[in-house]
Amino acid sequence: MTTMLERLVTEAKHDPAILLPNVWSDLLHCVQVQCPCGNVTGVRNGVLDTHEPKSTWDMSGQRRAVIADAYDVGYICRYSGRTATLVAALERDSHLTEAEAYVARTVGARLVAGITDTAPAGYALPKPVAALFALAESNGWATAQAWAPRDDGFVLNLRVGRAGGWQYDLSYFVAPGVARRTRSGLCHSPDHRGLRDTPSLKALMTVIRANPVGADG
């Protein structure tokens, strides 16, 4: 299971349908586009500008595709950065346009700003993770954690690594009475430079024990 930030940055922000500018803005004296969220927004470099959705819920009672901002005072429309012109649509399969990259950076930065690197009140590292971190730190490895609110709990992204080319990422979903690993994550090591799935915690602890900082000179 990926985090909101990963989905927002990596998933396609396009749609086969072309959204033509068709709404006149009396305030800005220009033609704008009506987004699927119901709001009206401008277009830059062929994609929808970053904007707030008109509503977080549609008439059918379904939650619109929105992302809460870092301060929980508003929402950013998930369709921000969507292809809105034919020219941009032709570019979508090759690379992000400048505007799409801007949207990814802007929204990503807001999400990151709302992520904490310490356990929220009432939460703690799952016991297997706490044991992994204790072992890693006692062997000179660096550890990192990031908690992001999701549903009724938190997505907990973890990283364990050390200089020399070791880095292991994994993710948990943590809620009251629940702590489960949600995906394998990716890793790389000196003997395997390419990315691959992070192994089990038991296997990872074996790697850490075999490669303490200082043992390689």
Mind explaining what this structure looks like?
The mean pLDDT is 75. The two termini are 38 Å apart. By secondary structure, this protein is an alpha+beta fold. The chain contains 5 helices and 13 strands. The protein is elongated, with a radius of gyration of 21 Å. Helix 1 packs antiparallel against helix 3 and helix 4 packs parallel to helix 5 (201-210). Strands 8, 9, 10, 11, 12 and 13 form a 6-stranded antiparallel β-sheet that branches. Strand 10 (166-175) and strand 11 form a beta hairpin. 24% of the residues lie in helices and 30% in strands. The longest helix is centred in the middle third of the chain and has 16 residues, at 98-113. The protein has helices at 4-10, 86-91, 98-113, 127-138, 201-210; strands spanning 23-25, 30-34, 40-41, 43-44, 47-48, 66-68, 75-77, 142-150, 153-162, 166-175, 178-183, 186-189, 192-197.
Q: How would you classify the helix and strand content by structural class?
A: alpha+beta
Radius of gyration: 21 Å
Shape: elongated
- Return residue spans where pLDDT drops below 50 for at least 5 consecutive residues: none
First-to-last CA distance: 38 Å
Instruction: Give me the number of helical elements.
Output: 5
Helix content: 10-25%
Average pLDDT for all residues: 75
- The SSE string, one letter per element, is HEEEEEEEHHHEEEEEEH
Q: In this structure, how is the largest beta sheet organized?
A: 6 strands, antiparallel
Percent strand:
25-35%
